[in-house]
Specification:
elongated; 4-stranded antiparallel beta sheet; single chain; 2 domains; 9 strands; 2 helices; Thrombin, subunit H; 5-stranded antiparallel beta sheet
C-alpha cells in the first residue's frame, strides 16, 4: 500500500482509529468514551473477526451498529474447558474467591487464563472459557481516523504507538468489566511461574 496518501475507506493494511461502545445482554460493558480510540490494522486479526468483517468500506466519520454472534466473537462455551483442581495445587498467594482470575500452566508449559467459578472443600473449579464465550456482542462504532500502516507495522502485524512501544498482544473489550473481584487481580499478575496444572479448551 502506498504510504504517501491516507486511505479514504477501511481496507486491509489500513490503521483504523475507532471509537466503540460494547453492549452485552442489554448492558454497556466497555466503551472508549472519555478515553482515546482504539487503533488496529484492518485485516490482521487485531480485533474479533465478526466486527472486523463489518468495518470494510467505512469512511472517517461513519458510524455503524454491529451485532456479532458468539461463533464470530469468542466462541461458544466449551464444557470441557471447565476443570476441577485440588485446592492444595492452587498457590497460596491466590485468593480463593469466585471470580478471581489466575494464570495456569498446562503440561506443555503454555500459560492459560482461567477464572474461579466454584470452591468446594477439596477442589477449586476453574473455567478456561473466555469470559465472553457464548455471548452475542453488540458494538456501536465510529471511525475517527484512517492511515496507511508503515512497513514495520505490517511486518509485525500490529500498530506501533507514538512513543515507539509495540501495542502487541493487546485485547480490546477488557474482561475486567465482567469480573466480580477486580480488586484481587493485582495480586495475581506475577503468578505465571507458580501456577497449577490444568487443561484448556
Amino acid at each position: 500500500m502506498s504510504q504517501t496518501a491516507n486511505p479514504t475507506v477501511i481496507a486491509d493494511d489500513v490503521v483504523v482509529s475507532l471509537e466503540y461502545t460494547l453492549t452485552v445482554d442489554g448492558e454497556i460493558v466497555d466503551s472508549t468514551e472519555g478515553i482515546d480510540p482504539i487503533e488496529f490494522i484492518q485485516g490482521h486479526e487485531n480485533i474479533i473477526a465478526g466486527l472486523e468483517r463489518e468495518l470494510y468500506g467505512l469512511k472517517i466519520g461513519d458510524t455503524k451498529k454491529v451485532t456479532v454472534n458468539a461463533a464470530d466473537a469468542y466462541g461458544e462455551i466449551d464444557p470441557e474447558a471447565v476443570v476441577d483442581v485440588p485446592r492444595d495445587e492452587i498457590p497460596s498467594d491466590i485468593p480463593l474467591k469466585v471470580g478471581v482470575e489466575l494464570d495456569v500452566k498446562n503440561e506443555d508449559g503454555d500459560v492459560l487464563e482461567a477464572r474461579i467459578i466454584e470452591i468446594t472443600k477439596d477442589n477449586v473449579r476453574l473455567d478456561f472459557n473466555h469470559v465472553l464465550a457464548g455471548k452475542e456482542l453488540t458494538f456501536e462504532v465510529t471511525v475517527v481516523d484512517l492511515r496507511a500502516a508503515d512497513e514495520e507495522e505490517l511486518e509485525h502485524g500490529h500498530v506501533h504507538s507514538e512513543d515507539g512501544d509495540d501495542d502487541e498482544d493487546f485485547e480490546y473489550f477488557d474482561e475486567d468489566d465482567f469480573d466480580d473481584e477486580d480488586e484481587d487481580e493485582e495480586e495475581e499478575d506475577d503468578d505465571d511461574d507458580s501456577s497449577s496444572n490444568g487443561s484448556k479448551k
